[in-house]
Amino acid sequence: MRRAACVLFVCVIASPALAQGPGPGAPVGLAAGLQASYTRIKGLLTASADKLSDADYSFKPTAEIRNYGQLWGHVANFHFGTCAQVKGVPNPNQGNNLENSATTKAAVVKALADSFAFCDDAFAALTDASAVEMLTGGRGGPRAKGIVLNQIIEHDNEMYGIGTVYQRLKGVVPPSTEQQGQRGRGRGN
């Protein structure tokens, strides 16, 4: 619980720097911070899924890890399961392991988009008050809704970082690096 609270605190503090929301010094609440972080990583993952060709979706840097398509299928699986818990509804993707069933770029991009669409309203409906509502049914016992939604952001950031390695190995510039170059704050590669 202590780790989750620290992660949630860091997320809220870091979010204003990542979001194009209120000006400097404007207060950002828990819900707004989580929403801004979700919006940012959603954009990065969506752009990442489009970065490599259909042929490169089977690329694995080593034999022991997922291929590029499986990486994003894994993310979609996580979204569906976690947001179903937050929304208090059955997982609409239950029994369909997208890591294995979505085998083309088009199928993976669609699965990822569908998983974000499923999670969008969970984040949009979040308020500072609802962020502390306790949820049951997940692993580890009751947890605050904001903690569970933060797990999506945390997991997505981890998967984005992994995806950038695949992109770099294929000679492709990751979306966040492109964005830095467009803002004139990075080298652009």
SSE layout:
Blueprint: H1 2-18, H2 30-51, H3 68-87, H4 98-101, H5 105-124, E1 134-135, E2 143-144, H6 145-169, H7 175-183
Antiparallel strand pairs: 1-2
Structural overview:
With 189 residues, the chain is an all-alpha fold. The chain has one domain (2-21, 30-41, 64-171): Four Helix Bundle (Hemerythrin (Met), subunit A) (Up-down Bundle). Helices cover 62% and strands 2% of the residues. It has a two-stranded antiparallel sheet. Helix 1 crosses helix 6, helix 2 runs antiparallel to helix 5 (105-124) and helix 3 (68-87) packs antiparallel against helix 6. Mean pLDDT is 88; it is low at 1-19 and 185-189.
Label this structure with key terms.
189 residues; mainly alpha; globular; disordered C terminus
CATH class: Mainly Alpha
User: How many structural domains in the coordinates?
Assistant: 1
Secondary structure: number of strands: 2
State the order of secondary-structure elements, H for helix, E for strand.
HHHHHEEHH
